């Protein structure tokens, strides 16, 4: 029979081995769980709004202020009345009262809403965001009904957001911070409102008539968005075959051409971001009817835009423009 001291040493050694084994098993389990967790795209930044801003983000801001008791007219213009309402809200929330709406103010302003919500002004704020992202059939009536629900489901699916049909802080940040029509990555955006593609989704797959490009039938005056970030370059002209044109020399090293425009909303050399309005579509130049001619040039060579356009229309991450084919322009 071993002495008591030897037995104690053996028991202590076995306990250390057991603890080591348990620690290793727990570590392996945690690593497995982390590896299995789905990756999520980074949140877009909250927009920065101040006096002089206009658009749907401002309209949503005004309706959220009203939901919090603010006295403000929802006119989509960040005017003196809106600035005063922002300052009052910031003071009530203990924030820096500078009249500028940034991350701290947005995080206090947004209100969680879901189907059947009775907070009508907060729902209107949501509906203006959904319309900004192309859901034109959503009425700004303050009713979170079937149409608004379907739009929320579609938007959250495209952006890989969880939480069912509830619109919480994360979804609000996506809606407000993402450019119109953007996919989950936010680097590229579809080039017009989805609902304004006259011949429907399948028309985006049609080959151009004689060289790599895409002609999209669309009514005159439809907003055209920057497909990606870069530098705007005005080209063409009323007597040019392109008509009024805008090119974007993308930060990705590829150039994107828009032709037959009715008007241009950016200046030559201006910096643009994905989803930013840059023009209104038209029928200028060598055109047989209202449409948007869209071309992609890689090191001066035309490549087929169809794969990129259909992915962006569907809210998916598009293929790299450096992989697009130079011929056979169908999906």
What's the layout of helices and strands?
Elements: H1 4-36, H2 56-67, H3 80-92, H4 103-109, H5 120-132, H6 146-158, H7 169-177, E1 214-217, E2 223-225, E3 230-236, E4 244-250, E5 255-264, E6 271-272, E7 277-281, E8 291-298, E9 301-303, H8 306-313
Short structural summary:
With about 325 residues, this protein is α+β, with helices and mostly antiparallel strands. It is built from 8 helices and 9 strands. The longest helix is centred in the first third of the chain and has 33 residues, at about 5-35.
Please write the CATH class name of the largest domain.
Mainly Beta
Give the structural class: alpha+beta
The major beta sheet can be summarized as: 9 strands, antiparallel
Number of strand segments: 9
Q: Count of helices?
A: 8
Annotated CATH architecture of the largest domain: Distorted Sandwich
CATH H level of the largest domain: which superfamily?
Answer: Glucose Permease (Domain IIA)
| Average pLDDT, all residues | 86
- Succession of helices and strands: HHHHHHHEEEEEEEEEH
Number of domains: 2
- Envelope shape: globular
Low-confidence spans: pLDDT under 50, at least 5 residues? Answer: 4-9, 28-41
For this structure, the CATH topology of the largest domain is: Glucose Permease (Domain IIA)
How much of the sequence is in beta strands?
A: 5-15%
Domain Peptidoglycan binding-like: 54-109, 120-175
GO molecular function, one term: metalloendopeptidase activity
Domain M23ase beta-sheet core: 214-304
